[in-house]
Amino acid sequence: MSDDHRQSTPRSRVAIIGGGIAGLSAAMALSRIASRDPQSPRFEVILLESRKATGGRAGSFTDPVSGATADYCQHVAMGCCTNFIDLIDEAGLTDCFTRYDELSFYHPATGISPFRANRFLPAPLHLNSALSGLRYLTWRQKLSVRRGLWSLMRTSEADLADVTAARWLADHGQDAETRQRFWDVILVSALGDVPQRVSMAAARKVMIDGFASVQGASDVWVPNEPLSQIFGERLISVLRKRGVDVRLQTSVRNIQTLEQSSSSPRARVTVGDGECLDVDHVILATSWRAASRLIDAITVRDEPETVGSWQRSLADTLGSVLQSPITGLHLWFDRSLTTHRHVVMVGTTAHWLFHHGLDPQNPAAGHYHQIVISGRHRLSDEPKEILIDQVIDELRQAFPNANDAVLLNSRVVTDPAAVYSVTPAFDTQRPVTQTPLPWLHLAGDYVQTGWPGTMEGATISGRLAAESVLGQFNDDGTPAAFSCVLPGLQRRWLARLCIRD
Ligand SMILES: Cc1cc2nc3c(=O)[nH]c(=O)nc-3n(C[C@H](O)[C@H](O)[C@H](O)COP(=O)(O)OP(=O)(O)OC[C@H]3O[C@@H](n4cnc5c(N)ncnc54)[C@H](O)[C@@H]3O)c2cc1C
User: Fold this and answer.
1) Is the ipTM of this complex over 0.95?
2) How many alpha carbons lie under 13 Å from residue 348 in its C-beta half-sphere?
3) Most buried among 17, 139, 355, 402, by the most CB within 10 A?
């Protein structure tokens, strides 16, 4: 396509519904293509977000008592999240994250054990010393974990689609205590639900891609600014500079097909105040619940039967999704409880402790600590005060500094639908990006990406939707020339020999 031709070609109008990480990732991909490649198609991208700020589940709130800004729940990424890390790099936001190559595991019986992969040994041998360092595991348990990891490396993901993690682990010699002390600790945090419900294929993704396959895959990326700053302000300013029309507090009420003609817009998006936007493409990047409602209400002019059966089957699939809660306990003390920035807590109600210290913007709020508990737990139905008391008891036992610490303020935030459960049934039925409506593309962490419900999954889904728009755009016979999704980290020779694909 020549520059002259490009100038004269009408711009394709794309509405992205939802400004969570999936929608933001799609907007970044389309605006990057439009701004960097003179041969590329031209887009007018409109991002529609119903809330006051973008970021979706990766957002923050202002505590009414102290005025402090805190994330609804602490989010972390891992070194294996190549697309998410690339997204923040592209947006110039790498300074918003700190990368850690060591984890600290706490157990009441043994205190803190460092978990650090060996930087000189090739994967998967690099994990050996890290495992040896977990003092709360007996040598038998460590041997059992190594055997389990080896079996997992020798089993392809496709062979694990039908089985839950709990079943597979029990069948592969992992006794209840080894599961509780090792596998469950990692899987519940990463997948947001208990191994009795999640598929072993999803668990393999975490254990193999996230730990065993490549040096650096298990590094932890922790935001050092509120998520609202990262995804609600800084990323939006990048998008606006690239010409994306970001509209906040703009809730989409319905989507309709228009009369088909090659030169006209193909869909109409109606927003809350009744304004209608006629567009060539819609990327639906909401949660699975909002997507189900909007898709169900689409009225179709052509091929109503094909589309109707797809609508019904998608409604069944999304209607059967099991969801899992995640709880964040936000605790402000008069002092820091520990020098560790984060600690994985084993054998306690708390799963992770994140320690942020004093906020320089608001030092009077106190030293901020956040406890994360993924999934339902034994105090889920108890009053919040009981949960706070229990967790503070655990912190006092774990960290001597906590004994004299005074709790200045606390808040418990539970998102009951934080993540969907990657059950074997749902994992095999997850919807794909393309739909029978050529102008409609799905994004969101629930879409088939090979990843569970994470920021990486959401980023990939947005990039896949951008690729799908581009593929359509080139339907005139030109092959789709743009690839937006990055591959995972490249395995080296020993990992390639050991790990079956
Ligand atoms: C408590 C908690 C902890 C988590 N921890 C981690 C973690 O540590 N690491 C990790 O990788 N992931 C974590 N996740 C998962 C991660 O947050 C999600 O996978 C990811 O943010 C999903 O992004 P999304 O864009 O797919 O969906 P969402 O974030 O749900 O975004 C959808 C957006 O669509 C908007 N919307 C909905 N309906 C409409 C409409 N009609 N019109 C316009 N806009 C609409 C919503 O307001 C929302 O902004 C956590 C999630 C939660 C809730």
Assistant:
1) yes
2) 30
3) 17
